[in-house]
Amino acid sequence: MVVLGAGPVGENVADRTRAAGLSTAVVESELVGGECSYWACMPSKALLRPAIARADARRVPGLRQLVDGPLDAAEVLAHRDYETSHWKDDGQIGWLDSIGVAFHRGHGRLAGPRRVIVDAADGGRHVLTARHAVVVSTGSRALLPDLPGLAQVKPWTSREATSAQAVPGRLIVVGGGVVAVEMATAWRSLGSEVTLLVRGKGLLPRMEPFAGELIAEALVEAGADVRTGTSVTAVSRENGTVVALTDTGDRLEADEILFATGRAPRTEDIGLDTVGLESGAWLSVDDSLRVTGSDWLYGVGDVNHRALLTHQGKYQARIAGAAIAARAAGVPILESDPWGAHAATADHAAVPQVVFTDPEAGAVGLSLAEAEQAGLRVRAVDVEFSSVAGAGLYADGYRGRARMIVDLDRETLVGVTFVGPAVGELVHSATVAVAGEVPIGRLWHAVPSYPTISEVWLRLLEAYRG
């Protein structure tokens, strides 16, 4: 089989199929390890961790006076570079070799069913023919708006924001989603004057409203200028300075401007048209990640637009790898089994996500609005973390909120959201509860340790029972 794209998704598909005994080749035009390793998950968290650790320390009596100074930006950036292996993929190529996967550096594109042409980096050309499957795992790229003057400005996207080698004195961030709030948090902590421009009413529109509200409050307290209901109408660069005009009549100046305004699939110029699919489009797939209408082509990770998250893409990769191996061996796949080894059911019911801001936000499953739109009879149960002893011990003046969405007909959870310091570590327990459809009555017997932040689970169940 052949895998187009060697990010964490493509690597995981290759690992699973090779372990099942299939001869596997991987094609990558950039760096093995993909967006996550070099321009997303790893560098962004390396930038954010010092900011969050300092914020936590400032809330602990006896520590706050020791961390009042600025972060050592040079050291933070150097550590970020270390975590990205200085944008070199030798180690990941070595890992592919160690598991017996053939690696081809170059641009790969389909040339009809099961056929891939690779224009190699050295100028050569290779033709690969897959007996069983071709997997498209080429990911997504930043989507820039059509604005006058944008190309000349050379704006930052998520790639530049996570790989910049110097701290900009002034930074405009356009967007209100995860990339926008995380990068606003990171660069503000390193000393940038940050202005966050949000077209909508608030931050993180796909999460519960209180998540965006608490994070906005924290950004303002940290010195960021957060403006909602504001769109950029034009940009230019004058004598090295970025000038942004807004629909509210403001003229803003900065050293750099980051657009975090969406993603587009990296499916252009990979030969989709040679197999009857639209070039540059998201791929429609079934629950085994096989492209609709095909018996050999798979779309795994961001390209299928089901959940643009690294951990979900790797989950899909495990599902796809198992499905490809089973079909290659002639093993029947029970498509009627929603929780079988070959069904990516959690992509629908239990998608977890953590936003690494201060405070953190984490959620899994449906928000209240999504549950109501789905026609479910639900009840939202809210608890402030101020009622949790472990939260108060973790941080003086701990601020945060938890919400669980209960399906009243089944007495199970369909969604959970946490906002507060260190809540990212609570999300997996919520994911188990939602994915496992654990009855509320049984959750009552899952006793949280005292005094930990996880005691919020007990407070939520007490509030539900009244």
Automatic annotation (TrEMBL):
TM segment ranges: none
Binding site for NAD(+): 175-182, 262
Binding of FAD, residues: 45, 108, 138-140, 302
Key words of the record: FAD, Flavoprotein, NAD, Nucleotide-binding
Gene Ontology terms describing biological process: 2-oxoglutarate metabolic process
Record's cofactor remark: Binds 1 FAD per subunit.
InterPro entries per UniProt: Class-I_Pyr_Nuc-Dis_Oxidored, FAD/NAD-bd_sf, FAD/NAD-binding_dom, FAD/NAD-linked_Rdtase_dimer_sf, Pyr_nuc-diS_OxRdtase, Pyr_nucl-diS_OxRdtase_dimer
One annotated GO molecular function: flavin adenine dinucleotide binding
Pfam families: Pyr_redox_2, Pyr_redox_dim
Disulfide bonds, paired cysteine numbers: 36-41
UniProt name for this protein: NAD(P)/FAD-dependent oxidoreductase
